[in-house]
Amino acid sequence: MKTIEDFLKPTQKQLFKMLAEKYTNCTVNKDNYILVEGNAPLLLVAHLDTVHKEQVRVICKSNSGNILMSPQGIGGDDRCGVYALTSIYEQAKIKPWLLFTCNEEIGGVGAEAFAEDFMQGILPAGLADLKAIVEIDRKGKNDAVYYDCVNYDFENYITEKGYCTAFGSFSDISVIAPTLGIAAVNLSSGYYYAHTLYEYINKKHLEATIMRVLEIVNDASKEDFPKYEYFSYEWEDWGYGNYDLCDTPKDLPKKYKKLYGELLDYYTYGEIESYRRAYGNEILNHLYNAVYNYDGR
After folding, report:
1. Do residues 105 and 50 touch, judged by C-beta distance below 8 A?
2. Residue 240: predicted pLDDT
3. Which of 69-73, 95-99, 255-259, 292-296 has the lowest mean pLDDT?
4. In this predicted structure, which of 48-57, 161-170, 183-192, 258-267 has the lowest mean pLDDT?
5. Which value, to the nearest 10 degrees, does the dihedral of the CA atoms of residues 146, 147, 149, 154 take?
6. Minimum mean pLDDT among 52-61, 83-92, 137-146, 283-292: which range?
7. Residue 244 above 60 pLDDT?
8. Which of 3.30.70.360, 3.30.1330.120, 3.40.630.10, 3.40.50.2300 is the CATH number of 4-220?
């Protein structure tokens, strides 16, 4: 079994080639996605690209070996997810479906290609039997993000696994879930400070998610596991347009609330608050520019 470090140094193309050769029971759309067929009616999703412009050459570790960083940017977003999917697949008695996408960071390009192929009916028929979708591409330890999907039964099930509902702006399941009509969630994968050069990976937090998703795979393999359908709502109907549901501080000026809500897609509440205490509210603008303008877009 490969370690997380084996997934950090390859380029997206190198990693794509490695995975396409690793799985023989797969559908490959070159430079867009790899779909690995499974037996459990659960689709796991991760993306191969990172925002960092340099290939990882040096990996720095804490004394315990639990924390990983790199001067080039460690790329936990989303190499943590890629490692998690391969690890879960190897350990699961009944294998889930896997979807590895390319170029999520520039608008979900691989996910869009997958959705288009699904709509054209050229993908394996077994996708129609899926009962849920789990993406592993979220910062932190216990976050669960549903985007525009609202299925309270599914959300309650994920919450029972130890996750807390959080809010985000976009990931591959934003495209995939409504196309397949299946409820989906994006779970934490142990990386922090994404889209910055001081991004780091907490391996224990990543392994905790792997173990919990293995439980979900096992549950999905049982006959009585329900099919969770995708239901959506308009953001404005629930106040999302103003981030009313985000856990923003009561003392935060109104002009910073939307900014704060968007930053919660990349930082934990505690991380943002530590910056505010040290530098004041204006630091939120700098954090936003660091995150959303880092890759030149």
Report:
1. yes
2. 42
3. 292-296
4. 258-267
5. 10
6. 283-292
7. no
8. 3.40.630.10
Q: What angle do CA 19, 24, 30 make, to 5 degrees?
A: 55
Closest to 263 (Cα-Cα) out of 238, 297, 292: 292
What the block records as the tokens of 191 is 């990386």
Q: Domain-by-domain residue ranges, the chain?
A: 4-220, 238-292
**Tens-place pLDDT, residues 154-165:** 999 999 999 999
Residues 87, 210: contact at Cβ < 8 Å?
Answer: yes
Using left for φ > 0, alpha for ψ between -120 and 50, and beta otherwise, residue 241 falls in: alpha
Question: At 83, is the pLDDT very low, low, confident or very high (cuts 50, 70, 90)?
Answer: very high
